[in-house]
Design goal:
It is globular, with a radius of gyration of 35 Å. The chain is of the alpha/beta class.
C-alpha cells in the first residue's frame, strides 16, 4: 500500500497528540454513591374509636352540658388551624335542624369531633343518607346517633296532619308526610308527642341501613336517642 509523505506526517502528528493527551495511569471510576436512605414508613392512621367508646364520650360530654359545666374543649385558634388539613370525627350525629339542638354544644365536644348531619325531623332523603355514608366510608366513624328532641315541631306537624287539626302547606308538608307513617304506627297514649319523637328516631335508625347497602355492610352501630330540651340530657332508646 503506497502512502504519501503528507499522509504519514498527518498520521504521526495525530498519534503523538493522542499519546500526550492520555494520562499516564487511568483514574479508577468514581465510587458509587451509597443508596439513599428509605423514608420512614408512614404511621398508620389512628383507629376510629369503637361505637361503645364513642357513645361513652358523648354521654360524658352531655352530662357536663346538662349540669351547666361544659368545658368547651379545644376551640382556640391554634387548635382550629390544626384542623385545616383534615378531620377525624369519632361519631356522626344525624339530628333535627332545630336551633336549640346543636350537637357540638349539647355533647360538649371539640371542633372536628362530630360529623353533624341535620334535617328537620331527622327525615331521610338522598342527601342526608349520602352525608352519613360519607362519614362512615370516608371518615371511618363507627357510631351514628339519630337524635330526636322533645317538642319537635316537625313531629307535631305530622300529628296535626294525621288528626286533621291543622293544614300543612308548602314544602313543609313533604316533611310532615315523611313522618306520617311514624305517627300512624304509634298507639294513642297521654305522652303521644314524646312517643312519636322516640319512634321517629328509632324508625330512622332502622331505615338507614335499609336505604344504604354501604351503611348496612359497614355494620356501624346506629343509636336512636332523644334530647330533652328542659333537662338538657340525651337518653338512648
Amino acid at each position: 500500500m503506497n502512502l504519501s509523505r503528507r499522509t504519514l506526517l498527518a498520521f504521526g502528528t495525530a498519534t503523538a497528540a493522542g499519546v500526550l493527551a492520555a494520562p499516564a495511569h487511568a483514574s479508577p471510576p468514581p465510587a458509587a454513591s451509597p443508596p439513599a436512605a428509605s423514608p420512614p414508613a408512614a404511621s398508620p392512621p389512628a383507629a376510629s374509636p369503637s361505637s361503645r367508646d364513642a357513645w361513652s364520650r358523648l354521654v360524658a360530654g352531655n352530662a357536663r352540658f346538662a349540669a351547666g359545666r361544659p368545658v368547651h374543649p379545644r376551640q382556640d385558634p391554634t387548635y382550629r388551624r390544626g384542623l385545616v388539613g383534615g378531620q377525624e370525627p369519632f361519631a356522626c350525629v344525624l339530628g333535627c335542624a332545630d336551633s336549640r339542638v346543636p350537637p357540638e354544644l349539647l355533647f360538649d365536644q371539640d371542633l372536628g369531633d362530630l360529623f353533624a348531619v341535620r334535617a328537620v325531623g331527622e327525615v331521610l332523603d338522598d342527601a342526608v343518607v349520602g352525608s352519613v355514608e360519607y362519614a362512615v366510608e370516608h371518615l371511618g366513624v363507627r357510631a351514628v346517633v339519630v337524635l330526636g328532641h322533645s317538642g319537635c315541631g316537625a313531629v307535631r306537624a305530622a300529628i296535626e296532619l294525621v288528626h286533621g287539626t291543622s293544614e300543612v302547606t308548602g314544602s313543609v308538608s313533604t316533611v310532615a308526610r315523611a313522618i306520617e307513617a311514624t305517627v300512624r304506627a304509634t298507639p294513642p297514649r297521654p305522652d303521644f308527642l314524646a312517643a312519636c319523637v322516640r319512634n321517629q328516631a328509632s324508625g330512622v335508625a332502622e331505615e338507614l341501613p335499609r336505604r344504604s347497602s354501604m351503611i348496612h355492610e359497614a355494620r356501624v352501630e346506629i343509636i336512636p336517642a332523644v334530647y330533652d330540651l328542659d333537662s338538657g340530657l340525651v337518653r338512648r332508646h
